[in-house]
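Incident log, structure service

09:12 report received: a user says their structure output differs between two submissions of the same chain.
09:20 pulled the input from the user's history:
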Amino acid sequence: MAYKISDDCIACGACEPECPTDSITAGDPIYVIDPETCIDCGACANVCPVDAPKPE
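09:34 re-ran on a clean worker, output below:
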């Protein structure tokens, strides 16, 4: 089950460097997780100040 970034995202960028598979990219206006490469590790959720990444 891949993670997805909700509309709560404040585009702070904290999640992007934490992703071990480089599945997170800056979108417009929020960050986006590629479900094809996400390994459901939760690293992004652990650093997000607004809990935007959620299991899909």
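09:41 both user submissions now match this output. Likely a transient worker issue. Closing.
09:42 reviewer note: Helices lie at 43-47. The chain has one helix and four strands.
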